[in-house]
Amino acid sequence: MFGGSSIQLARVFGIRIGVDVSWFFVLFLIIWSLSGYYEDVSPGSNAFALATVSALLFFLSILLHELGHAVVAIRNGIPILGIDLWMFGGVAKMERDTDSAGVEFRVAVAGPLVTLAIAALCFGLGTLVSSPDAVIEGSTFDTGVGDEATAVLGYLMSINVLVLAFNLIPGFPLDGGRIARAIAWRITGDRNRATRFAAVLGRGAGWLMVGLGVFMFLRGSVLSGVWLAFIGIFLAQAARSAQVQADFAGRIEHLRVADVMDDEPVAIPESLPVERAEDEFFLRYGWPWFPVVDAGGRLVGVVSHDAVRGADGEARAVSAVMARDRGDSGLRASVEDPLDSLLGLESLGRLGAVMAVDADGVLRGVVTLDRLRRALRPA
């Protein structure tokens, strides 16, 4: 969806949580827009503090939405590379695509269900604080709501309802589009055909949003119109990318990782001293990195030339300076995986390669971008 150079904030359930630089820009815009509203609701109050709390709670809602996707994906055996918040909300980055229509549906619907629960919770709390009518007034930005807590809860309820409605638009890659893909996948039995169908819906929804944004712009809603058109363009482009990838995956679905890997990988033992690794591997082969294996040949990480050269006197073994494979880093793939499953792995972009392992985690090969391109050229 966008670059992976996000700033890590924390880990939740072992999942990396990061923010893209664009997130700060949107955070500022939300705080700025809400400050004036809260000043009208309660003159003399600390409107900036209320706006900041509301904006952060909104992004917490987005994070919980994405955690819903992530937790269900993990429960279905799909590792999560991380969750990033950015200008359009958030994205849970899965290491690989879902492998059945049922899993696709469960992962896709989890986020909207969390958002629905948050909206219902805000309405319930607002009712306890004041009344249902006051919460509704707060959700419509009625400055006569009077109570600060009700105004905040009303805003959170309304924004989560909007997030829910937007995400349920039946266009890929939105949640509604993924639900549509799951249904089409179940009917046709063909994942790539279902993806193309959902992507067409996504492109249509995106250009419809662009048209609506232009209409709003011409009617005087300049900021809202530009923002909606911008989102529509992004959605249309993301859907087109998904369609192209589905077409490509359909042409290579008969290939496995084992069919294109280099089945004689050069790996460094984790117990090897760094001085010997420098002389026997990096200076000999001239490569910028090597996979690292344990005594049983199982993949345990990757070590770079920079890490070996920068090792201090206490770091005597390669295991002390390597980047350890946690299993969710996108570094490895099974030799039996379909080749198209490699296309979204993070290490292809970061290292230019993916490590191929067997069922026991033993390193059996390496798939580099060059080998991938050569293997796919005939297709």
Q: How would you sum up this structure, described in words?
A:
It contains 13 helices and eleven strands. The protein has two domains: 7-168, no CATH class; 257-376, CBS-domain. 41% of the residues are buried. The strands form three sheets. Strands 1-2-3-4 form a four-stranded mixed β-sheet. The longest helix has 31 residues, at 222-252. The two termini are 25 Å apart. It is an alpha/beta fold. Strand 3 and strand 4 (89-94) form a beta hairpin.
Task: Kindly summarize this structure in a few lines.
This protein is an alpha/beta fold and 379 residues long. The protein has helices spanning 21-41, 47-75, 101-129, 132-139, 148-167, 175-188, 191-218, 222-252, 257-260, 274-285, 305-309, 346-350, 369-376; strands spanning 7-12, 15-19, 80-86, 89-94, 268-269, 289-293, 299-304, 323-324, 332-334, 353-357, 363-368. It folds into 2 domains: 7-168, no CATH class; 257-376, CBS-domain (Roll), CATH 3.10.580.10.
* Largest sheet: spatial strand order: 1-2-3-4
Low-pLDDT sequence parts: none
Distance between the termini: 25 Å
Largest sheet: 4 strands, mixed
CA radius of gyration is: 24 Å
Q: How many E-type strands?
A: 11
Order of helical and strand elements: EEHHEEHHHHHHHEHEEHEEHEEH
Helical fraction equals 55-70%
Instruction: Work out the count of structural domains.
Output: 2
Q: Compute the number of helices.
A: 13
**Beta-sheet strand percentage?**
5-15%
Structural class computed from helices and strand pairing = alpha/beta
